[in-house]
Amino acid sequence: MNAPVRAGHQVRALDWRDASDVRRIESFVAEHRASLFHRPAWLQAVAAGTGQRAAGLISERLGVVTGWLPLTEVRSALFGKALVSSGFGVGGGICAETPEVARLLAAAAETQAMAGGFGGIELRGGPIPESWDAWSDKHCGFVRPLAANDEAELNAIPRKARAEVRKGLALDHRVTIGRGRDDLAAHFACYSQSVRNLGTPVFPRALFAAMLDALPDNSDILTVWDGDTPLASVLSFYHNGAVMPFWGGGVFAARAARANERMYYELMLHARRKGMEHFDFGRSKTGSGPFAFKKNWGFAPEPLTYGAWTAPGAKGRNIDPTDAGYSRKIDLWKKLPLAIANTLGPWIARGLA
Questions:
Q1: Start and end of every BioF2-like acetyltransferase domain (predicted)?
Q2: Collapsing DSSP states into helix, strand and coil, what is residue 141?
Q3: Displacement of CA 189 from its chain's centroid (Å)
Q4: Predicted local distance difference test score (pLDDT) of residue 328
Q5: What is the number of other CB atoms lying within 10 angstroms of the CB of residue 125?
Q6: What DSSP state is assigned to residue 88?
Q7: What CATH architecture applies to the domain 140-303?
Protein backbone atom coordinates (compact mmCIF):
# COMPACT_ATOMS: atom_id res chain seq x y z
CA MET A 1 0.00 0.00 0.00
CA ASN A 2 1.41 3.39 -1.03
CA ALA A 3 -1.15 6.17 -1.40
CA PRO A 4 -0.36 9.83 -2.18
CA VAL A 5 -2.67 12.13 -0.22
CA ARG A 6 -3.33 15.81 0.39
CA ALA A 7 -0.97 18.45 1.76
CA GLY A 8 2.06 16.53 0.56
CA HIS A 9 1.53 13.65 2.99
CA GLN A 10 1.84 10.07 1.88
CA VAL A 11 0.48 7.07 3.77
CA ARG A 12 2.05 3.66 3.35
CA ALA A 13 2.43 0.38 5.17
CA LEU A 14 5.44 -0.13 7.42
CA ASP A 15 7.98 -2.46 5.85
CA TRP A 16 8.74 -4.84 8.71
CA ARG A 17 11.63 -6.35 6.75
CA ASP A 18 13.40 -2.99 6.72
CA ALA A 19 15.16 -2.53 10.07
CA SER A 20 15.75 1.16 9.40
CA ASP A 21 12.03 1.66 8.75
CA VAL A 22 11.21 0.03 12.09
CA ARG A 23 13.82 2.15 13.87
CA ARG A 24 12.29 5.32 12.42
CA ILE A 25 8.94 4.43 13.98
CA GLU A 26 10.54 3.54 17.32
CA SER A 27 12.13 7.02 17.25
CA PHE A 28 8.80 8.65 16.35
CA VAL A 29 7.07 6.88 19.25
CA ALA A 30 9.80 7.95 21.67
CA GLU A 31 9.81 11.55 20.42
CA HIS A 32 6.05 11.87 20.89
CA ARG A 33 6.03 9.96 24.18
CA ALA A 34 3.42 7.63 22.75
CA SER A 35 2.34 4.50 24.59
CA LEU A 36 4.21 1.23 24.91
CA PHE A 37 1.57 -0.28 22.63
CA HIS A 38 2.65 2.03 19.80
CA ARG A 39 6.14 0.55 19.77
CA PRO A 40 6.96 -1.77 16.85
CA ALA A 41 8.65 -4.01 19.42
CA TRP A 42 5.26 -4.57 21.06
CA LEU A 43 3.62 -5.55 17.76
CA GLN A 44 6.51 -7.84 16.88
CA ALA A 45 6.22 -9.60 20.25
CA VAL A 46 2.48 -10.09 19.72
CA ALA A 47 3.20 -11.62 16.32
CA ALA A 48 5.95 -13.89 17.67
CA GLY A 49 3.88 -15.02 20.65
CA THR A 50 0.46 -15.49 19.06
CA GLY A 51 0.88 -15.68 15.29
CA GLN A 52 -1.31 -12.61 14.79
CA ARG A 53 0.47 -10.60 12.09
CA ALA A 54 2.02 -7.19 12.83
CA ALA A 55 1.05 -4.36 10.49
CA GLY A 56 0.92 -0.57 10.67
CA LEU A 57 0.48 2.57 8.62
CA ILE A 58 2.93 5.49 8.36
CA SER A 59 2.22 9.03 7.24
CA GLU A 60 5.21 10.89 5.81
CA ARG A 61 5.85 14.33 4.38
CA LEU A 62 9.10 15.03 2.55
CA GLY A 63 10.57 11.88 4.06
CA VAL A 64 9.68 12.84 7.66
CA VAL A 65 7.27 10.69 9.68
CA THR A 66 4.15 12.67 10.64
CA GLY A 67 1.90 9.91 11.90
CA TRP A 68 1.75 6.25 12.87
CA LEU A 69 -1.07 3.75 13.32
CA PRO A 70 0.11 0.45 14.86
CA LEU A 71 -2.04 -2.50 13.81
CA THR A 72 -2.36 -6.16 14.62
CA GLU A 73 -4.15 -8.26 12.02
CA VAL A 74 -6.33 -10.43 14.23
CA ARG A 75 -7.71 -13.58 12.66
CA SER A 76 -9.85 -15.89 14.76
CA ALA A 77 -12.21 -18.70 13.86
CA LEU A 78 -14.29 -17.76 16.93
CA PHE A 79 -14.14 -13.96 16.92
CA GLY A 80 -13.63 -13.06 13.28
CA LYS A 81 -11.09 -10.78 11.60
CA ALA A 82 -10.22 -7.26 12.71
CA LEU A 83 -7.43 -4.71 12.57
CA VAL A 84 -6.65 -3.82 16.18
CA SER A 85 -4.62 -0.90 17.46
CA SER A 86 -2.95 -2.21 19.37
CA GLY A 87 -3.08 -6.00 19.70
CA PHE A 88 -3.24 -7.24 23.32
CA GLY A 89 -2.71 -3.66 24.51
CA VAL A 90 -4.95 -1.38 26.52
CA GLY A 91 -3.80 1.65 24.53
CA GLY A 92 -2.59 2.45 21.07
CA GLY A 93 -4.63 4.19 18.42
CA ILE A 94 -3.55 6.87 16.00
CA CYS A 95 -0.48 8.94 16.86
CA ALA A 96 -0.41 11.94 14.53
CA GLU A 97 1.06 15.42 14.46
CA THR A 98 -2.15 17.01 13.16
CA PRO A 99 -5.87 16.14 12.99
CA GLU A 100 -5.59 16.03 9.21
CA VAL A 101 -2.90 13.35 9.39
CA ALA A 102 -5.07 11.39 11.83
CA ARG A 103 -7.96 11.47 9.37
CA LEU A 104 -5.70 10.30 6.55
CA LEU A 105 -4.42 7.37 8.58
CA ALA A 106 -7.96 6.37 9.54
CA ALA A 107 -9.10 6.50 5.91
CA ALA A 108 -6.11 4.40 4.84
CA ALA A 109 -6.92 1.87 7.57
CA GLU A 110 -10.49 1.57 6.27
CA THR A 111 -9.13 0.88 2.78
CA GLN A 112 -6.70 -1.71 4.13
CA ALA A 113 -9.44 -3.44 6.12
CA MET A 114 -11.73 -3.66 3.10
CA ALA A 115 -8.93 -4.98 0.89
CA GLY A 116 -7.94 -7.62 3.44
CA GLY A 117 -11.43 -8.81 4.27
CA PHE A 118 -11.35 -7.55 7.87
CA GLY A 119 -14.73 -6.90 9.45
CA GLY A 120 -13.64 -3.83 11.32
CA ILE A 121 -10.99 -1.68 12.97
CA GLU A 122 -10.57 -1.10 16.71
CA LEU A 123 -8.73 1.90 18.16
CA ARG A 124 -7.71 1.87 21.82
CA GLY A 125 -7.21 5.54 22.52
CA GLY A 126 -5.98 8.38 20.38
CA PRO A 127 -8.19 10.49 18.12
CA ILE A 128 -11.36 8.73 16.95
CA PRO A 129 -12.78 9.77 13.55
CA GLU A 130 -16.17 11.51 13.82
CA SER A 131 -17.85 8.93 11.60
CA TRP A 132 -16.71 6.00 13.77
CA ASP A 133 -18.35 4.64 16.91
CA ALA A 134 -16.73 5.90 20.11
CA TRP A 135 -17.34 5.22 23.81
CA SER A 136 -15.83 6.16 27.15
CA ASP A 137 -18.06 4.27 29.57
CA LYS A 138 -16.68 0.71 29.43
CA HIS A 139 -13.13 0.90 30.81
CA CYS A 140 -11.13 3.12 33.13
CA GLY A 141 -7.40 3.52 33.64
CA PHE A 142 -5.72 3.95 37.03
CA VAL A 143 -2.49 5.92 37.41
CA ARG A 144 -0.92 7.75 40.34
CA PRO A 145 2.55 9.05 41.27
CA LEU A 146 4.91 6.85 43.22
CA ALA A 147 5.84 8.08 46.70
CA ALA A 148 9.24 9.37 47.78
CA ASN A 149 10.22 6.38 49.96
CA ASP A 150 9.05 2.97 51.15
CA GLU A 151 7.16 4.21 54.21
CA ALA A 152 5.46 6.98 52.26
CA GLU A 153 4.44 4.42 49.64
CA LEU A 154 2.79 2.28 52.30
CA ASN A 155 1.05 5.27 53.84
CA ALA A 156 -0.23 6.36 50.42
CA ILE A 157 -2.38 3.20 50.34
CA PRO A 158 -5.77 3.74 52.04
CA ARG A 159 -6.18 2.28 55.51
CA LYS A 160 -8.06 -0.95 54.77
CA ALA A 161 -5.87 -1.93 51.84
CA ARG A 162 -2.76 -0.89 53.80
CA ALA A 163 -3.75 -3.27 56.60
CA GLU A 164 -3.83 -6.14 54.09
CA VAL A 165 -0.38 -5.19 52.79
CA ARG A 166 0.97 -5.16 56.34
CA LYS A 167 -0.41 -8.66 56.91
CA GLY A 168 1.37 -9.83 53.78
CA LEU A 169 4.62 -8.19 54.87
CA ALA A 170 4.39 -9.86 58.29
CA LEU A 171 4.36 -13.30 56.66
CA ASP A 172 7.75 -12.43 55.15
CA HIS A 173 7.40 -14.52 52.01
CA ARG A 174 10.30 -14.55 49.58
CA VAL A 175 10.15 -12.09 46.67
CA THR A 176 12.12 -12.49 43.44
CA ILE A 177 12.47 -10.30 40.38
CA GLY A 178 13.87 -11.68 37.14
CA ARG A 179 13.44 -12.53 33.49
CA GLY A 180 14.65 -16.12 33.30
CA ARG A 181 13.04 -19.47 32.62
CA ASP A 182 12.14 -20.04 36.27
CA ASP A 183 10.51 -16.61 36.47
CA LEU A 184 8.43 -17.37 33.38
CA ALA A 185 7.38 -20.75 34.75
CA ALA A 186 6.35 -19.26 38.09
CA HIS A 187 4.45 -16.49 36.37
CA PHE A 188 2.53 -18.82 34.08
CA ALA A 189 1.66 -21.12 36.99
CA CYS A 190 0.12 -18.23 38.92
CA TYR A 191 -1.42 -16.32 36.03
CA SER A 192 -2.99 -19.33 34.32
CA GLN A 193 -4.67 -20.49 37.52
CA SER A 194 -5.89 -16.97 38.25
CA VAL A 195 -7.55 -16.42 34.87
CA ARG A 196 -9.01 -19.95 34.84
CA ASN A 197 -10.66 -19.15 38.18
CA LEU A 198 -12.14 -16.02 36.57
CA GLY A 199 -13.44 -18.05 33.64
CA THR A 200 -11.03 -16.54 31.11
CA PRO A 201 -8.79 -18.41 28.63
CA VAL A 202 -5.11 -17.89 29.34
CA PHE A 203 -2.88 -16.19 26.79
CA PRO A 204 -0.14 -18.32 25.22
CA ARG A 205 2.96 -18.79 27.35
CA ALA A 206 4.90 -17.90 24.21
CA LEU A 207 3.42 -14.38 24.32
CA PHE A 208 4.97 -13.67 27.71
CA ALA A 209 8.35 -15.03 26.59
CA ALA A 210 8.19 -12.98 23.39
CA MET A 211 7.48 -9.80 25.33
CA LEU A 212 10.50 -10.34 27.57
CA ASP A 213 12.66 -11.00 24.51
CA ALA A 214 11.38 -7.98 22.58
CA LEU A 215 11.58 -5.55 25.51
CA PRO A 216 14.67 -6.69 27.45
CA ASP A 217 15.24 -3.32 29.13
CA ASN A 218 11.59 -2.58 29.79
CA SER A 219 10.13 -5.70 31.39
CA ASP A 220 10.50 -8.14 34.28
CA ILE A 221 8.60 -10.60 36.47
CA LEU A 222 8.07 -10.16 40.21
CA THR A 223 6.99 -13.26 42.15
CA VAL A 224 5.98 -13.87 45.76
CA TRP A 225 6.89 -17.37 46.99
CA ASP A 226 5.94 -19.68 49.83
CA GLY A 227 9.10 -21.77 49.94
CA ASP A 228 9.44 -23.19 46.43
CA THR A 229 5.78 -22.58 45.55
CA PRO A 230 4.86 -19.39 43.69
CA LEU A 231 1.84 -17.66 45.20
CA ALA A 232 1.47 -14.58 43.02
CA SER A 233 3.38 -13.23 40.05
CA VAL A 234 3.19 -10.26 37.69
CA LEU A 235 4.85 -9.45 34.38
CA SER A 236 5.40 -5.68 34.27
CA PHE A 237 6.55 -3.14 31.73
CA TYR A 238 8.41 0.15 32.19
CA HIS A 239 7.68 2.98 29.77
CA ASN A 240 7.73 6.78 29.87
CA GLY A 241 8.55 6.84 33.58
CA ALA A 242 5.74 4.50 34.60
CA VAL A 243 5.61 0.88 35.71
CA MET A 244 2.70 -1.13 34.30
CA PRO A 245 1.83 -4.41 36.05
CA PHE A 246 0.25 -5.93 32.97
CA TRP A 247 -0.31 -9.67 33.41
CA GLY A 248 -0.57 -10.70 37.05
CA GLY A 249 -2.41 -13.14 39.25
CA GLY A 250 -2.23 -15.53 42.12
CA VAL A 251 -3.05 -19.12 43.03
CA PHE A 252 -5.83 -19.97 45.46
CA ALA A 253 -3.48 -19.81 48.47
CA ALA A 254 -2.47 -16.25 47.55
CA ARG A 255 -5.59 -14.81 49.15
CA ALA A 256 -4.86 -16.05 52.68
CA ALA A 257 -1.21 -15.08 52.28
CA ARG A 258 -2.11 -11.58 51.02
CA ALA A 259 0.36 -12.36 48.27
CA ASN A 260 -1.26 -10.12 45.66
CA GLU A 261 -1.18 -7.17 48.04
CA ARG A 262 2.46 -7.86 48.87
CA MET A 263 3.24 -8.24 45.17
CA TYR A 264 1.89 -4.86 44.12
CA TYR A 265 3.48 -3.05 47.05
CA GLU A 266 6.87 -4.62 46.33
CA LEU A 267 6.48 -3.66 42.67
CA MET A 268 5.91 -0.03 43.69
CA LEU A 269 9.16 -0.06 45.66
CA HIS A 270 11.06 -1.82 42.88
CA ALA A 271 9.76 0.61 40.26
CA ARG A 272 10.81 3.65 42.25
CA ARG A 273 14.31 2.21 42.62
CA LYS A 274 14.39 1.80 38.84
CA GLY A 275 13.66 5.50 38.47
CA MET A 276 9.96 5.26 37.66
CA GLU A 277 7.71 8.11 38.74
CA HIS A 278 4.23 6.66 38.24
CA PHE A 279 2.36 3.42 38.88
CA ASP A 280 0.00 2.59 36.01
CA PHE A 281 -2.42 0.00 37.37
CA GLY A 282 -3.81 -0.62 33.89
CA ARG A 283 -7.42 -0.67 32.77
CA SER A 284 -10.41 -2.35 34.35
CA LYS A 285 -13.98 -2.83 33.26
CA THR A 286 -16.11 -0.12 34.84
CA GLY A 287 -17.84 -1.45 37.95
CA SER A 288 -15.92 -4.76 38.00
CA GLY A 289 -14.10 -6.39 40.92
CA PRO A 290 -10.65 -5.24 39.71
CA PHE A 291 -12.10 -1.73 39.29
CA ALA A 292 -13.12 -1.71 42.97
CA PHE A 293 -9.77 -3.24 44.05
CA LYS A 294 -7.81 -0.43 42.40
CA LYS A 295 -10.07 2.27 43.84
CA ASN A 296 -9.53 0.73 47.28
CA TRP A 297 -5.79 1.19 46.74
CA GLY A 298 -6.33 4.92 46.29
CA PHE A 299 -6.30 5.10 42.50
CA ALA A 300 -8.80 7.43 40.83
CA PRO A 301 -10.48 5.95 37.73
CA GLU A 302 -10.04 7.84 34.47
CA PRO A 303 -12.40 6.86 31.60
CA LEU A 304 -10.69 5.46 28.51
CA THR A 305 -12.01 6.39 25.09
CA TYR A 306 -12.04 3.65 22.48
CA GLY A 307 -13.42 3.61 18.96
CA ALA A 308 -14.37 1.22 16.19
CA TRP A 309 -15.21 1.18 12.51
CA THR A 310 -17.26 -1.67 11.04
CA ALA A 311 -17.06 -2.60 7.38
CA PRO A 312 -20.30 -2.29 5.40
CA GLY A 313 -22.38 -5.41 5.88
CA ALA A 314 -20.09 -6.79 8.59
CA LYS A 315 -20.89 -7.40 12.24
CA GLY A 316 -18.58 -5.95 14.88
CA ARG A 317 -16.76 -8.55 16.95
CA ASN A 318 -17.68 -8.98 20.61
CA ILE A 319 -14.87 -9.92 22.98
CA ASP A 320 -16.42 -8.37 26.10
CA PRO A 321 -16.28 -11.10 28.79
CA THR A 322 -19.04 -9.37 30.79
CA ASP A 323 -21.51 -9.71 27.92
CA ALA A 324 -24.50 -11.81 28.94
CA GLY A 325 -23.92 -14.13 26.01
CA TYR A 326 -20.67 -15.32 27.57
CA SER A 327 -21.90 -15.94 31.12
CA ARG A 328 -22.60 -19.68 30.69
CA LYS A 329 -19.29 -20.25 28.90
CA ILE A 330 -17.43 -18.44 31.70
CA ASP A 331 -19.11 -20.56 34.35
CA LEU A 332 -18.14 -23.73 32.50
CA TRP A 333 -14.55 -22.56 32.02
CA LYS A 334 -14.12 -21.98 35.75
CA LYS A 335 -14.81 -25.68 36.31
CA LEU A 336 -12.24 -27.00 33.84
CA PRO A 337 -9.19 -28.82 35.20
CA LEU A 338 -6.24 -26.47 34.94
CA ALA A 339 -4.33 -28.72 32.52
CA ILE A 340 -7.25 -28.71 30.06
CA ALA A 341 -7.77 -24.95 30.43
CA ASN A 342 -4.09 -24.35 29.74
CA THR A 343 -4.23 -26.53 26.63
CA LEU A 344 -7.37 -25.04 25.11
CA GLY A 345 -7.02 -21.50 26.43
CA PRO A 346 -4.12 -20.20 24.30
CA TRP A 347 -5.83 -21.26 21.07
CA ILE A 348 -8.92 -19.26 22.05
CA ALA A 349 -7.11 -16.32 23.66
CA ARG A 350 -4.93 -15.57 20.65
CA GLY A 351 -8.11 -14.24 19.00
CA LEU A 352 -8.84 -11.87 21.89
CA ALA A 353 -6.14 -9.37 20.93
A1: 160-294
A2: strand
A3: 20
A4: 85
A5: 23
A6: T
A7: 3-Layer(aba) Sandwich (3.40)
